[in-house]
Specification:
This is Cysteine synthase A. The protein is α/β, with parallel strands linked by helices. It folds into 2 domains: 192 residues, Rossmann fold; 104 residues, Rossmann fold. The protein contains 11 helices and 10 strands. The chain starts with 18 loop residues before the first strand and ends in a 12-residue tail after the last helix.
């Protein structure tokens, strides 16, 4: 009988997430596709890892002092992770978030005791962008730090030191490929660097949604985007400090419709309720698996990130009216006719 591990510190609940073999994606790819179940973190997303490393790093450098405040600009999940870690360590939290993100994320942040400030979505060059707004608030707040998840490389260290060795050990040292989408770049770069340090032959792939610029950057050397995506928390138009030096071997661009197809299949066929970023990651993992099989590696193993829970998107991805308003297909079980 398996015995669940015992933790003496609630922050030790972050990380060491399960890795699960995904049957439908494996069949579609012709090789093994494995999903890292980041929704099992206390904040129900992969961003708990970055939150913990960023706060611990600020403490170690003496920047975050007792009774201090952590300020961050986020699409939601990093803010939730920061709020939980900050609560456990006695800090306050201020989160700045675009007002087009899901109501579930906003309600969760408020429930966790974070001060939530919402701003209109805008381009990064705009001084009113949520990232720049959060930086100014941190500068104006006494005894506060700015988490700066996009350019604070403590973010990617969370994955170099945590996620990558976990995947390596869980798969017994036999990993052929890894892929995920990019928000800050911490997960892709960190896992890529961590896995490459163990076996340089592991193929690292970017999976980019439409509307982001990184696919074209890695394919053609130019930051350029086309189309759009409703996915929250992924899609990047610049090379962040976390992305610098990321060992990207290949790249895929995934449409929302394809990501949603995998979201539907994961729920209907495998009982996993996931967000769209996870669906896009699964689609990218299938593409990477097919590429490896075509290169003669029929026994390939590909890992990806199941970023967060679909329960965070009940008002969007799992709402027929919202999907219709975006011109996206409605899951058949949500249809009333």
């Amino acid at each position: 009988m398996n015995t669940a591990p015992v933790r003496t510190d609630t922050l030790d609940l972050i990380g060491n997430t399960p890795l699960v073999l995904l049957e439908g994606p494996s069949e579609a790819a012709g090789c093994e596709i494995w999903g890292k179940c980041e929704f099992t973190n206390p904040g129900a997303s992969v961003k708990d890892r970055a939150a913990l490393w960023i706060i611990r790093d600020a403490e170690a450098r003496g920047e975050l002092k007792p009774g201090g405040t952590v300020v961050e600009g986020t699409a939601g999940n990093t803010g939730i992770g920061i709020a939980l870690v900050a609560n456990a360590l006695g800090y306050a939290t201020v989160i700045v978030m675009p007002d087009n993100q899901s109501q579930e994320k906003m309600a969760t942040l408020r429930a966790l005791g974070a001060k939530l400030i919402t701003v209109p979505p805008t381009k990064f060059a705009d001084p009113n962008h949520f990232v720049h707004t959060s930086r100014r608030i941190a500068e104006e707040t006494e005894n506060a730090i700015w988490a700066n998840q996009f350019d604070n490389v403590a973010n990617r260290r969370a994955h170099i030191e945590g996620t990558a060795p976990e995947i390596w050990e869980q798969l017994g040292g036999r990993v052929d490929g890894f892929t995920c989408a990019v928000g800050t770049g911490g997960t892709l770069a960190g896992v890529g660097l961590g896995l490459k340090a163990r076996d340089d032959a592991i193929r690292i792939a970017l999976t980019d949604p439409h509307g982001a610029a990184l696919y074209n950057y890695y394919a053609n050397g130019e930051l350029a985007s086309e189309g759009s995506s409703v996915a929250e928390g992924i899609g990047q138009g610049r090379i962040t400090a976390n992305l610098e030096g990321a060992p990207v071997d290949t790249q895929f661009r995934i449409a929302d419709e394809e990501g949603l197809e995998w979201v539907a299949r994961m729920l209907r066929e495998e009982g996993l309720c996931l967000g769209l970023s996870s669906g896009i990651n699964v689609a990218g993992a299938v593409a990477l698996g097919r590429q490896l099989v075509a290169d003669g590696r029929e026994d390939a193993r590909v890992a990806t990130i199941l970023c967060d829970t679909g329960f965070r998107y009940l008002s969007t991805l799992y709402n027929a009216e919202w999907l219709e308003s975006k011109g996206l297909p409605v899951f058949d079980w949500l249809r009333s006719d």
